[in-house]
Amino acid sequence: MCSAVFIAGRSEQQQHKEDLGAFPFKYATFAVNYTDLSVSGSVFGFSQLKAIYRNGLGATLISELTEEQIRAQTFNIAIPPDINQDNISWPMGDKIDDDSFPSNINQTLLQNAINDMFIEKDSTKLIRTRAIVVVYDGKLIAEQYAPGFSRISKLLGWSMTKSITSALIGILVKDMKLNIDEPAPVPEWNNNNDPRHSITIKTLLQQTSGLNFKEDYYSKSDAIQMLFETSDMAAFAASHPLKDKPGTLCYYTSGNSNILSRIIRHTVGENEYHSFPYRKLFYKLGMHNILMEVDASGTFVGSSYSWGTARDWARFGLLYLNNGLYNNEQILSEDWIKQTTTLGGSNQYGEYGFHFWLNTGKNNDSSTRRLPNVPADMFFASGFDGQAIFIIPSKKLVVVRLGLTQTPGGKYGANEFLNNVINSIN
């Protein structure tokens, strides 16, 4: 509620009815304080929690530390560029040249594919698409929004934030500040006799750290405790013991991502950290509306909490479509993109690279692809409730889909939708 009201500018009523309309949130009561920019919430008077909004840092849930301690924190935050993007051509700006629409695109087929994503075919399984943006060969060729949303609406990316964290690691690797094959610089694992000392940044990126961390959003799992009950999410995740030998088993956890986020903080330093994603990544891509939120300790919640417009998310995808080159600058190395989109040797199910999901199929068997009607070279950032940035190099496509899809697995027909978009290209 705090993030939606103070970052996205949504009304309390909208947020309560839609995003917080499902069990158990529909039984919650929220009090929004527009004076001190905070929100308090409880369920039947119990489990009272409070979140505070701070400019440039987003909303932070008060846990373990006091509100006074959190409000007393001071950070060097980024200053957004003072420019009007409406007067600057895409992708650095929002000016779209209508005369440059590619002649090999069947606009009718493309629009039909997009329209279909806004039609509810099953009243018991609402897909609630909120935004779609299609970029072909660098050009923004289509976008559409649900009522109440527009190209300036900031939408929560959830676990697409993991892919941002990966990009920030990639920048530090390019600058030779980190080596992903060396033991991860995590204070809790410094002792050579600690079995976790063998965890590398690479195994954290590939979700093969081996930590005994449970990722489950429907029980009081490690992930839930980390996101809602701890002040220092990375320290909480790093405190877990080893369950499997690093590099042997892929198990997706938000804990790995938040450990990476704190590694970035320690590597960059306090004076640079809170402006680092903006200076070194977002503003270079024209992502001027993006915001990453921090936990109570001040570390970016690199697993889950970032807000951006659909166009901003598309710009991020375009960086990867262009092999790390953007606005004539090699922001990520081509080798980093290659590693990011390569199946980890221990990942037998063909699903994960460096904090991006892959479509390679089990053991590179294309017949077992997650999205069988989409090319095997497709990779994507994915978030809870059906957020996605699909990057399909062989088709020169970046497709962003954002929504509130609370169906099992957040399914909304991505395979058919992307196939229809691809079929609109002659």
TrEMBL record:
Residues annotated as domain Beta-lactamase-related: 130-402
Membrane-traversing stretches: none
Pfam families: Beta-lactamase
Protein name (Swiss-Prot/TrEMBL): Beta-lactamase-related domain-containing protein
Organism: Didymodactylos carnosus
